[in-house]
Design goal:
Largest sheet: 2 strands, antiparallel
Number of domains: 1
Number of strands: 2
Strand order of the largest sheet: 1-2
Structural class: mainly alpha
Main location: membrane
InterPro entries: OPT, YSL-like
Protein name: YELLOW STRIPE like 5
Family: Belongs to the YSL (TC 2.A.67.2) family.
Radius of gyration: 25 Å
Membrane topology: Multi-pass membrane protein
Length: 702
């Protein structure tokens, strides 16, 4: 995400996703993408490469379907709580390998196995699963879609008229996703050879995923994978049972372990406490140390310093007695200062990626014209040139074997665009057909720029383009439904740009595993179709089971819904709605984000790795500090483990983290079912100060 952003600015080792910024697909191990020394294709030389039809198996899609449900639930929960989503590709890859390997091993023992499990089929599972659960994130359920709702509108006194509100409903959400989610697949598919072979773009996430899959299917890698799956299963069970145990003590929102004042009651009032969430301990183990440290710094600056000081200005900077969620009060400072930090970081990185991308693109085009050679080649390593050339020869041969006709791509994009131009204005009345036409004309260009930049830097700027179109379409539409039009335009643009970039990542993975581009494309289409049904159903389950979704301070606050809506309000109304001195603080915060990023890029690497990341700092500004404590506990666990046994920590750390995330995440499903059935927890565990406890005892004794 991003719709999201990879917050590891230094390399492609790990991933943290923030649901309002840049999403990076799957960084799955700690090797640099180009660290492959021996010839991988020599290892698999004796194994026949299946045809594209043989790569698309029924068992692959059955496994993908169930994994898609599992990971959609997990991503939805993370999205609705904090918007911090780590890479789940390790667990998706491990579980996909484990289930099909178990299936084929059982059939082999009975003599019924007709087709062995190959890395190409594994790639199809990975592609289909990730495409499906990506919809749970890129569908905007916790950002632009929920930002359209009455829940988000009620938290503001501006733009809360019926023209700017559209409440969630399962029917129109599924229809909307089907209309916009497939366009990105057709936008750039005709350029796959140019991006992957001619320009030799690395796509570090796709490359790392390919290393993971290739490693699974070597004899040594298979044994390690089995041990990793066993470890994942053990911590999955622990996390699931822990979530079940915690549920008994949560009769009310402020009850249970998630309201445990571990650092004292005063710290608890300022959201500094450990809430015993195995999910975010696992997230902290996956995210880089600098990401977790940055969030903790952001929490201290905001909830430890800024908000208490601004709160003391009540009656001077803003009226007394306002509701806690009134944007004319303290809540306004929290929301708009967080937005300024996000936009400052996003704008800086947009300019940075464009500045890197354009010279490289111009250089490669000149190289092709003048030298008639393949651009972006790296032949400095003479020790590996023979192995690399053999691997590239084999990979290029199979990548060019199954072609997807350009006419299909062009016709598919045009037909889908025409259908959505006709239908979308009936779903969102303020979104006029000519707004959509402008989006569809510009989307392929922006999609190409985004995919090219991601191939070089592993950064997708999809959410930045989305926010840009919130402003453009919102201002164009004006006060008559401009907020709703801007949010809908954001969703359309983000879906196209995100999906087209993800498809190129998948083509890179397929290229390195000798998977057919046709099989990859079909798998992506099927996975996207699954996601367009699974993700809305999962969201609807949460939406109906928990009545406080989108409410600040609740179990599922969906923080980016109100942030996206207020970006739209800024586009329509300007800065007139901001509280006193808020605009000045926003300017300062925006400038600080740019300067911090500049310092990170200009400082030597030894120093830069200790400079915090503004995007990570922004997340707790609005949401609170509690989840940063959990994530720092996860970092501490991993750090101690690495000090004791670095090799085991590197191999099994991602499996432990994935188990912790998936276990408590899956508990959300039975928890939702219990809530729908009106089965409530029997106990409320609450903590009081000594003074309040005496008052309660006195009251009960009378």
């Amino acid at each position: 995400m991003d719709e999201n952003r990879a917050l590891d600015h230094e390399n492609g080792d790990e991933e943290m996703v923030e649901a309002s910024q840049i999403r990076r697909r799957a960084i799955t191990n700690n090797e640099e993408p180009g660290s492959e020394i021996i010839s991988i294709e020599r290892v698999f030389e004796q194994k026949p490469v299946p045809t594209w039809r043989e790569q698309l198996t029924v068992r692959a899609f059955v496994v993908s379907f169930f994994l898609s449900i599992l990971f959609s639930i997990i991503v939805m929960k993370l999205n609705l709580t904090t918007g911090v989503i780590p890479s789940l590709n390790v667990s998706a890859g491990l579980l996909g390998f484990f289930f099909v390997k178990t299936w084929t091993t059982a059939l082999e023992r009975t003599g019924l196995l007709r087709q062995p499990f190959t890395r190409q089929e594994n790639t199809v599972i990975q592609t289909c699963t990730v495409a499906a659960y990506d919809i749970a994130f890129s569908g905007g359920f916790a950002s632009y879609l929920l930002g359209m709702s009455e829940i988000a509108a009620n938290q503001s006194t501006e733009a809360n008229t019926p023209a700017d509100i559209k409440n969630p409903a399962l029917g129109w959400i599924i229809g909307f996703l089907f209309l916009v989610s497939f366009l990105g697949l057709f936008a750039l598919v005709a350029l796959r050879k140019i991006m992957v072979i001619d320009y030799k773009l690395i796509y570090p996430s796709g490359t790392a995923t390919a290393h993971l899959i290739n490693g699974f299917h070597t004899p040594e890698g298979s044994e390690i994978a089995k041990k990793q799956v066993k470890t994942l299963g053990k911590y999955f069970l622990f996390s699931f049972l822990w979530g079940f145990f915690k549920w008994f003590y949560t009769a009310e929102d402020s009850c249970g372990f998630q309201a445990f004042p571990t650092l004292g009651l005063k710290a608890y009032d300022n959201s500094f406490y450990f809430d015993f969430s195995t999910t975010y301990i696992g997230v902290g183990m996956i995210c880089p140390y600098i990401v977790n440290a940055s969030m903790l710094i952001g929490a201290i600056i905001s909830w430890g310093i800024m908000w208490p000081l601004i709160g003391n200005r009540e009656g001077s900077w803003y009226p007394r007695g306002l509701k806690s969620n009134d944007l004319h009060g303290l809540e306004g400072y929290k929301v708009f200062i967080a937005i300024a930090l996000i936009l400052g970081d996003g704008l800086y990185n947009f300019v940075k990626v464009v500045a890197r991308t354009l010279p490289s693109l111009i250089s490669t085009l000149r190289s092709k014209i003048n030298l008639k050679t393949l651009p972006i080649q790296d032949n400095n390593n003479t020790d590996t040139s023979i192995a690399t050339s053999y691997d590239d020869e084999q990979r290029t041969k199979y990548f060019l074997k199954d072609q997807i006709p350009k006419s299909v791509a062009i016709a598919g994009y045009i037909v889908l665009a025409i259908i959505s131009i006709i239908v979308l204005p009936h779903i969102f009345h303020p979104l006029k057909w000519y707004y959509i036409l402008v989006i569809y004309i510009t989307a392929p260009v922006l999609g190409f720029c985004n995919a090219y930049g991601a191939g070089l830097t592993d950064w997708s700027l999809a959410s930045t383009y989305g926010k840009l179109f919130i402003f453009i379409i919102g201002a164009w539409a004006g006060s008559n439904g401009g907020v709703l039009a801007g949010l809908a335009a954001c969703g359309v643009m983000m879906s196209i740009v995100t999906t087209s970039c993800d498809l190129m990542q998948d083509f890179r993975t397929g290229y390195m595993t000798l998977s057919s581009p046709k099989a990859m494309f079909i798998s992506q289409v099927i996975g996207t179709g699954m996601g367009c049904i699974i993700a809305p159903c999962v969201f609807w389950l949460f939406y109906k089971a928990f009545k406080d979704i989108g409410i600040p301070g609740s179990q599922y606050p969906a923080p980016y819904a109100i942030i996206y809506r207020n970006i739209a309000i800024l586009g329509v109304d300007g800065f007139s709605s901001l509280p006193k001195n808020c605009l000045v603080l926003c300017y300062i915060t925006f400038a600080a984000a740019v300067l911090i990023n500049l310092a990170r890029d200009l400082a030597p690497k030894k120093i830069a790795r200790f400079i915090p990341i503004p995007m990570a700092m922004a997340i707790p500004f609005y949401l609170g500090a509690y989840f940063t404590i959990d994530m720092c506990v996860g970092s501490l666990i991993l750090f101690i483990w690495e000090c004791i046994d670095k090799t085991k920590a590197k191999i099994f750390g991602p499996a432990v983290a994935s188990g912790l995330i998936c276990g408590e995440g899956l508990w959300s499903l039975p928890q939702s079912i219990l809530a729908l059935a009106k089965v409530n927890p029997p106990i409320c565990m609450r903590f009081l100060s000594r003074k309040d406890n005496s008052r309660v005892d006195t009251f009960l004794s009378t």
